Amino acid sequence: QVELVESGGGLVQPGGSLRLSCTASETDFINLNMGWYRQASGQQRDMVAQIFSSTIALYANSVKGRFTISRDNAKRTVFLEMNNLKVDDTAVYYCKARRKSDGAEYWGQGTQVIVSS
Fold this sequence. Notes:
Elements: E1 4-7, E2 10-12, E3 18-24, E4 32-39, E5 45-51, E6 57-59, E7 67-72, E8 77-82, E9 91-99, E10 105-107, E11 111-115
Parallel strand pairs: 2-11
Antiparallel strand pairs: 1-3, 3-8, 4-5, 4-9, 5-6, 7-8, 9-10, 9-11
């Protein structure tokens, strides 16, 4: 079982920035593919960004150029730097881990991001 603890959500004005963090309990963190997903009220949960290694990342079209995913393997942490936030970015953001060896997936509890003036 991998526990994921997210932090960094909050209330921000349009055009502002936030940085989300997700720390995993897994000591073999390097063998986890990590991702951020979000779920707006009444909507399905969608992929925001995924990172497969320190240099290989994938982004949803809606956040390309504004969000950056990164990871610090020594700290077992994945980050989501969010810039130029828009009202449509308002959602609960979830961290997800997928173990490469067996495909097991784990979710964090979510952190709320509200973009509002």
